[in-house]
Amino acid sequence: MKPRSPTLEGFRAIFRRPSFGLAEIAWRWSFGLAATLLLAFSFFTFLDTLPVGKSDLLLLRSRQPLLIFRAMAHIFRGSAFRAVGAGIVLALTLGAAWIVLASLGRAATLKALIAYFRESGISVADHEEKSSWRLRSLFALNFFRLGAILAAAVGCLAAILLGAAASPPTDPSPGIAALIFLTVTMLVWLAWSTLNWFLSLAQLFVVADGDDTFGAIAAAIDLCRARPGSISAAGTWFGLAHLTAFVLVSSIVGFPLAFAPYLPPGVVLGGVLLVTLLYFAVADFLYVGRLAAYVATVEMPESQVSAETAPPALPLAGTRLDPNLQVSPAVDATELILSDVPAPS
C-alpha cells in the first residue's frame, strides 16, 4: 500500500470537509460571544452600583486630570470587595460553561473526524471500535486544562512579585527585574503549553478507544514515544501555516488603519474587526486540521505512514567489514580505508 502522510491527510480533511472547521467555529465562537456579552453585562451592572454625587460629576466635567483622578478614586472607594466577588462568580460560571461546551464540541468534532478516516479506508482494518466512552472523562481533561490555565496565571503573578522583590525602591534594578519576569513567564508559558497540548491530545483516545482520563493521558504519551516523527511534523507544518496566516493578517490590518484620517472611526473599526475575525476563522480551521493529522496518525497503521529513512552509516576505519553486509554500489568495498589490513609499504 502506498505510504501516506498524516500531515497531508490533515490538510486534505479541512479542504474536503469544510464542515469540520465550521463546526469548530460554531462552538468556539458561540462561547466567545456569550462570554463577551456576560462580561459586558456584569461590567455595566457593576458600574450601576457605584454612587456618583454632584461633586463627583463636577470634578469629572472639569477636564483636569488631577481632579478627574480624585473623582474616580472617590467613586470606586469601598467597591473592591464587590468587584472581587463579582469576578470570582463570573470566572467560576464561565469556567463551568467552558468545560461543558468544550467537552461536547470536542466530542462531536472527534467523532466526525474518526468516522471520516474510517470510512475513507485509512483506518486500521482490525481496529476495535469502542463506543462505550464516557463524557465525564472529557469533563475531567478539560477541568485539568482549566486548572493549568489558573496555575499559569498564578505563575505569571509570581513572576511579577519576584521581579518587584529583585528591584526594591531603595535599590532599583529595572534590568534584573525585567530579566526575572521574562524568564519566569517564559518557563511558565512553556510548562502550560506542553501540559495543555498533552491534555488536548488525550481527548482523542477518550473518543476513539474509550479510555478513561488517566488512561487517555498515558496513551497520548505512548503515541508521542511511538511516532514522534508524525506528531512533530504535524505540529511543525500547521504551526508554520498558522504563523503565515498571522503575518498576512498583520499586514492586511494596516490597510484600514492607513485610511483612519480619511474614513469615519466606525468604518475603520469595522475593517479591523472583520480582518481579526477572518484570522480567528483561519486559526480554527488550522487547529482542526492539526487535530485531523493526529487522528490520522492514530488510525493509520505504522507501515502505512510515510517516513524518511536515514542513509546507512559507513564503518569507521579500523573495523572489519561483515561479508554479508550489503554495501551500496557507489562505495568501493576494496578501498583500504574501509579495512584494517595494512597497506603495502
The count of strands amounts to 0
Mean pLDDT: 81
The biggest beta sheet is recorded as: none
Distance between the termini: 55 Å
Order of helices and strands: HHHHHHHHHHH
Helix content: over 70%
Q: How many DSSP H or I helices?
A: 11
Subunit organisation of the chains: single chain
Poorly predicted parts = 125-129, 308-341
Shape: globular
The Rg value, from CA coordinates, equals 29 Å
Helix/strand class: mainly alpha
Strand content: under 5%
Give the SSE map:
Layout: H1 6-16, H2 18-48, H3 54-60, H4 65-75, H5 80-119, H6 135-166, H7 174-209, H8 213-226, H9 228-252, H10 254-258, H11 265-299
Helix pairs in contact: 1-2, 1-11, 2-5, 2-11, 3-4, 5-6, 5-7, 5-11, 6-7, 7-8, 9-11
